[in-house]
Amino acid sequence: MSLIASGLDTAAPEYGARRAAMLAKLDDLAAEHAKAVAGGGPKYADRHRERGKLLARERVELLLDPDSPFLELSPLAAWGSDFPVGASVVTGIGVVEGVECVVVANDPTVRGGASNPWTLRKTLRAADIALKNRLPLINLVESGGADLPTQKEIFIPGGQVFRDLTRLSAAGVPTIALVFGTSTAGGAYVPGMSDHVVMVRDRAKVFLGGPPLVKVATGEESDDESLGGALLHARDSGLADHLAADERDALRLGRRIVRRLNWRKLGRAPGPVTAPVYDEDELLGVVPEDLRVPFDPREVIARIVDGSDFDEFKPLYGDSLVTGWAALHGYPIGILANARGVLFGAESQKAAQFIQLADQTRTPLLFLQNTTGYMVGREYERSGIVKHGSMMINAVANSTVPHITIVLGASYGAGNYGMCGRAFDPRFLFAWPSAKSAVMGPAQLAGVLSIVGRAAAESRGQVYDEEGDAAMRAMVESQVEAESLAFFLSGRLYDDGVIDPRDTRTVVGLCLSAINNAAEPAPGGFGVFRM
Asked: What is the CATH number of domain 39-259?
């Protein structure tokens, strides 16, 4: 074994300060998650229950296998927007009859389950995860359709929901719709384009136009049930494959459908699993609150990989980037982790070679981000930092093995790209509460604007307004700081969720298990290019 020798001093004052800061962030995270769980609030939850209906999360819980994990996705979607945290929909990966599935559940306690722009983005991300990882998709449907005041942001891109359902089916990935309530207009196509459809008797309503619209358009008088009730669709239109007596029966039927899929994974099976030697609770004290202070990512690796066993690759070369091989929950992985933030030419070349080696052995890659970006300056430009950084980014972009990214701390500039940020399409991307991401740090960005403004004033022969400059710098730093925080970024779905550091091993393990539902992607067409 190549056991990582931990140097983390849990008795040191620095460790205690880091741990306290992280726990405070986790308290804030719990408060925001509670808003998503609350949905529309007690008033609307009580009204929903009085109608004899289950809440969205209760439906999910009854659908999943008892005591099985549920990896919730994008729970902070819409954070900081005009819409409620969670975006009126619950999405995640859970186990149904032993099969890992993506579950999408409308929350009718939030504006009747109407879809706002963030609902759409969250739903599309869930479908993307289902397609790329070959996971059956189960929609728990009860929605009033589009949020009409924001229809201009929903209607055109919303067609992708239908496209995704048909592409999943064409790819052999089952799609299942359990309809609990209203599914009107464009929402009617969700069951219409699903492989399997269950409707709840006297509750489910599916039609392109409701009675008022039909009256206006055709003059025809009708009610919900005669126009698009569950019994009509089970007996006459044939849209419903199964007629459920109530919601619990619908969930039972949904589980039965999954059981009959005869599903099997196409990827590799995990090997033996060994717990890390070091306590995962100690992860709370690894990352400094001030991200300008470096930390050793090996302390994180030691607490998430099997047996804390890590075979480091090129440990003496390009040492501000740690690379190496490990296993996590029995799955082999390659790891790239920033050690001192800045990426130099040597680190970039090392990363490119390591990524190509992982591609050659079909080994998934785990990126642990804490980077301020690629190094700048005359010496580094002369030595080819643009060329070397481009080499690393090229390798990341064209690597065909699955990628998982965890943002531990800073994620600035092109370092975000080279370490497989959202634009580079990792299968999954999660962030710690300590994460920050922007084009550059707040002070640096404000400083650049100050220099540009000062140069412009000098070129015009004007006296530079120092007082105005100070005010501008303070305003810019405050804005960039607010917009680089983990909650803000997660609210815009730039990650799949903000997680407790202690859950990192579990979350990555669940992702690796989900990934292996799909067959290994085809390898690239080139061998390893040595530096």
From this structure: 3.90.226.10
Same fold, 1-36+274-439+485-531 and 39-259: yes
Give the torsion sign (CA, 123, 124, 130, 136). positive
Rounded Cα gap, residues 367 and 395, in angstroms = 13
Mean pLDDT by groups of 10 residues along the chain of 531 residues: 92 96 97 94 90 95 97 97 94 98 95 89 98 98 81 87 96 98 84 96 86 70 81 95 98 98 96 97 96 94 98 96 98 96 93 95 97 88 90 94 97 94 97 90 72 80 78 77 89 97 98 97 74 60
DSSP state for residue 502 in the 8-state scheme: G
Task: Concatenate the DSSP letters of all residues of 438-493 into one string.
Answer: ESS-HHHHHHHHHHHHHHHHHHTTPPP-HHHHHHHHHHHHHHHHHHTBHHHHHHTT
Instruction: Tell the residue number behind the tokens 């504006």, with chain if given.
Output: 111
Tokens of 45: 């939850």
Q: Token pair for residue 93? A: 């990966």
Structure tokens at 122: 């969250």
- Residue 530 has a pLDDT of 63
Cα separation of 203 and 244, whole Å?
10
Q: What is the CA radius of gyration of the chain?
A: 25
Which sign, positive or negative, has the C-alpha torsion 140, 143, 149, 151? positive
Helix (H) / strand (E) element for 94: namely strand 89-96
Residue 439, Cβ density class (10 Å: 0-12 exposed, 13-18 middle, ≥19 buried): middle
Closest CA to 487 of 477, 478, 497, 479: 497
Which tokens sit at 99?
């099969």
Let me know: does 401 contact 360? Beta carbons within 8 Å. no
- The strand ranges marked E within 158-264 are 175-184, 196-200, 205-207, 242-244
pTM for the model stands at: 0.93
Domain spans of the chain?
A: 1-36+274-439+485-531, 39-259, 442-483
- Residue-level pLDDT at 100: 98
141 neighbors 90 (Cβ within 8 angstroms):
no
Measured between alpha carbons, how far is 516 from 519 in angstroms, rounded to an integer? Answer: 7
8 Å CB contact between 320 and 343: yes
At 22, list the tokens: 């992280």
DSSP 8-state assignment for residue 309: B
Q: Provide CB contacts within 8 A for 471, sequence distance 6+.
A: none
| Beta strand extents in 240-320 (DSSP E only) | 242-244, 311-313
Question: What are the distances in angstroms from CA 254 to CA 99, 193, 199, 326?
Answer: 12, 16, 10, 38
Reading phi first (left if > 0) and then psi (alpha if -120 to 50, else beta), residue 264 is in beta
Please calculate the CA angle 383-385-387 and round it to the nearest 5 degrees: 100
Neighbouring CB atoms inside 10 A of 40's CB total 19
Cβ partners under 8 Å of residue 525, min gap 6: none
- Say which CATH architecture domain 1-36+274-439+485-531 belongs to: Alpha-Beta Complex (3.90)
